[in-house]
Here is the input.
Amino acid sequence: MIIRNTILVVLLLFVTACAQNKNIYYWADYSNTLYEANKEKSVKSDERHYAELIKIISSADHYGKKIPPGIYFELSMYESKKGNHDKANMLLSKEYALYPEAKIYIDNMKSGNQNE
Amino acid sequence: MNKYIIVTTFILFLSGCVTTENIGKMEAYPKMYEEKPISIVVLPAINKTTAADATDLFSTTVAQPLAEAGFYVVSIPYVNHVLALEGIQDGAQVRDIPMERFNYLFGADAVLFVTIDQWDTTYLLTVADVTVGLKFELISTKTSEVLWQQQRVIVHETTSNDSGSILFDIIATAVTTATTDYVPIARQVNSQILNTIPLGKYHPRYELDANDGSGHTKKVKH
Here is the structure.
């Protein structure tokens, strides 16, 4: 009985370990904080999502995962809204370095930052 | 008695003749393998239900499974922002816009249209089901052709913990479901559907999934 339970636990651990490692990217609590920010539209929920984006960028490496598409881009949207255009452009360049296929809309966004 | 044996034999014979086989992704969606789209724009969902929240729930949970399937997902908050400036709130208003426009604006190879047909919660004593009906269509920005599509009704069961008292469980279920966190449900439904899309270039199994299940079956006669 004990052996059977041990086997079961080991098997379960193995299965969950497999399931966790399958993701390509580190997402933290991305969909939840984005949903809350869309639903409530408050400074608080906005800041929580901003913090989540920073967390994804700083912790992805630690979890051995990549930074998902669009995360640097979304963060740059926050920075342009605050008027930090240099910082926004720096973040856009980082998005481009990871995902060159995003070039067209990154360039559109960069020219928007220059015009303002 | 003899009649039963004959009927049984006949059924066995019939089922031996015709079997259901899964159609592989390559056979079901050949255009995905020809065009190899990388970058995808997700449009705001067309919501045909009374659940006002459904569009938001969908748009905040779709990026994750779509990116995990190997695609570059054009930042959804940015797409929604640009479309809102044009007065566009959902994909239905976009049908008449030439698809190349999405390549010009966002550099997208394909556009994902989503229709939410159903979003209901049903209570059955101690169990509550959330039924979600979704239709996904991926359209090429080069040819305007459908590259991949999938329509599903998914039932998600939310149950409260068994307390030993049925009455308590019924109340607890109603309370849990009322405040149910729909975000994980929406994400799960999205990933279940996106399971059938031929994988994109950031996935380790890119171009190795031709024979994986496409979510479609066919009857084969032997």
